[in-house]
Design brief:
3-stranded antiparallel β-sheet, DUF6681, transmembrane, about 45% helix, transmembrane helix, alpha+beta, membrane, 2 domains
Amino acid sequence: MFSFLDMVNHYLGYFNINIKFKNRIYTVLGMLGDLYLFYVAFRWLSNQYYLRGSLIMLAAIILLYFSIMNIFYYFTTKKPPFDISPVIERFMGKTFGFNPQAEAEKKELEATRSRMAQNIPANGYFDQKKVLPGKLQISSLQQMNIDELAGRLQQQNLITTDYSGLSEDQIGRQLTANDKPVYAIGPGVLLPYFEMRERDGQLVIFGGMNQAEKREIGVVSSVGLQPVAAVRDRVQLYLAAATLMGGPFKVMGRNQPIEHDEPFTITVQLAYEKKH
């Protein structure tokens, strides 16, 4: 039985499977292994090997408890009853039995707040209830401008591609926790200068190191889930933020993070105001 579980675990390592789905598989396999331990314990007890059978039974019960905890962690959103993880944490000085996804989201929120404190948009702050994500159409020439801008930002040390100083082990733990790519420049960098102009009925986005060096970096094609043409007669649009994203990133490979590359791109946030 244990040889079978070890074989399954070995072959799962060959595939890049969603970490939550993989943990569900391990939980089910752990339950099967625990059932086998109960079977062994009953066999020892039935043959009057009470001490050995009792010890195996105790181990099986303990493993059953942790298997039930895993069912709550990976199959539901409910908090498990009789969770002794906080007691173990205080005793061991480590974090056990926590929700990796919740912890990752908490860290990401803290990082976002930190970036907001450091990156004040040049266009001012807008009511977040009236800000929507915009989608850009980017031509080959505009992509060249974005790549050039990314290079300038690196030269001026306004962005770094060192994965925020994280070690391979830290990147691996982060990938395991939230199953999202980790980008070399982080989740995004606000452009030093950006503006939006109307030209030939289109909303053209400009960005650069400053106003004197601005270049075209895209044309707004949609706001939220609607095309620009469908909303412009009803609302006035303002450019709230333009953020550089993309570039080198890492995902979890078979045993360690592996690096890929994608073009730098720009994401925008658009504030709106209803026309009277």
